[in-house]
Design goal:
Elements (H helix, E strand, L loop, with lengths): L9 H12 L16 H19 L4 E2 L2 E2 L1 E4 L4 E4 L2 E3 L4 H22 L2 H6 L1 H17 L2 H9 L4 H26 L5 H9 L5 H21 L1 H7 L2 H4 L10 E4 L1 H4 L11 H4 L9 H4 L20 H12 L7 E4 L1 H4 L12
Antiparallel strand pairs: 1-2, 3-4, 4-5, 6-7
Helix pairs in contact: 2-5, 5-7, 5-9, 7-9
């Protein structure tokens, strides 16, 4: 006899459906607010430096050839006056090993500095956000425009923004391939429509990846695609510098007049303005503690320091500090493994 079919009450079915639906979260678009400060200035400096190197190096000449060229066809890697052959692959292995160990070391000492300042995803997202702000306006203007009906102004602004994005992404793809094909010859081949299939593929692939990751996916790459955030916790220890909210000083939070002494009102120094949340590129609330979505960009530190300055309160309500530092103990910069 066939097994009797289970009958699930409608109320139970509804609960099961709600539980299944809770496993999937619809993306909430993040509109990062512009922020100024010392860490924002450092981030801009790193963006300018890294892009000057990336876009500029293929144009450098050395001894009548491109200074840095990875000629796969000839199996020669030119780096200024040095020529590497396939049998020199051991040097690349050593370089990659040193780079990986250095990344782990920097993370253990100072947290996710690479993510916040030098990661290509962060760098290109900063560039694309700068373009977006110049064309569409600041945070509230962008939010208002996106929620409004399509108008002529909205259409041309969106078209202009994506046009600039595509131009940046395309030039990025061309520059990337320019490290493997002499860039002057590559531009000539583009002009004469004589690119090879592989050149066309890699220009298209890298351009699409830049446009998609920095223009559309943004924080989704950091949250769900990048493995670095997932294993960062194993590299942290009580002496690692992290971006942290000082709850002892900030709580209980609440709005108050600038003239009101927080102690008299029974409040902490946090005025619950949520500007730290508005400037966060991944949309988290740092006041809830360390989260894997935090990329360590310190935008919330700049934002909070600006608010504290206006309120004539001490800076550092949100700051770089270690777990030991928050507990009143000195941070150990040099610490042997236990």
């Amino acid at each position: 006899m066939a097994e009797a079919r289970k009958i699930i009450p409608i109320a139970t079915q509804s609960v099961v459906a709600d539980q299944e639906q809770a496993l999937y979260e619809v993306r909430r678009k993040i509109y990062p607010r512009a922020v100024t400060g010392r860490f924002a200035a450092a981030r801009v400096a790193l963006v300018l430096f890294t892009q000057a190197v990336f876009y500029g190096v293929p144009w450098l000449q050395w001894g009548g050839r491109q200074a840095v060229l990875f000629d796969l066809g000839a199996r020669k890697f030119y780096i200024f006056g040095i020529v590497f052959w396939p049998q020199d692959f051991i040097y690349l292995t050593v370089l990659l090993t040193i780079s990986a160990l250095s990344l782990f070391l920097f993370t253990a000492v100072a947290g996710r500095l690479f993510c916040g300042y030098a990661c290509p995803q962060t760098v290109y997202t900063e560039i694309f956000l700068w373009v977006e702000r110049k064309i569409e306006g600041e945070r509230m203007q962008r939010m208002k425009m996106d929620s409004a009906a399509l108008t002529g102004s909205k259409l041309w602004r969106k078209t202009a923004k994506h046009g600039v994005w595509v131009a940046i992404a395309l030039w990025t793809g061309i520059t990337f391939v320019g490290y493997f094909t002499p860039i002057t010859a590559l531009l000539h081949e583009i002009g004469t429509l004589s690119l090879s299939a592989w050149q066309t593929f890699w220009i298209g692939f890298y351009s699409f990846a830049t446009y998609g990751n920095a223009g559309w996916m943004r924080e989704q790459v950091c949250k769900y695609m990048c493995p670095y955030a997932r294993f960062q916790s194993v590299m942290f220890d009580p002496d690692t510098l992290i971006v942290t909210y000082d709850g002892k000083r900030g709580e209980p939070r609440g709005a108050r007049s600038r003239k009101v002494d927080p102690a008299d009102a029974g409040l902490g120094h946090c005025v619950d303005c949520e500007i730290c949340v508005q400037v966060c590129p991944t949309g988290i609330d740092i006041r809830k503690g360390l989260q894997y979505e935090c990329i360590g960009c310190a935008a919330c530190i700049d934002a909070c320091d600006a608010v504290m300055t206006k309120l004539d309160r001490p800076l550092g309500l949100i700051r770089y500090d270690s777990h030991r530092g928050f507990n009143g103990q000195p941070t150990r910069w040099i610490r042997p493994p236990m």
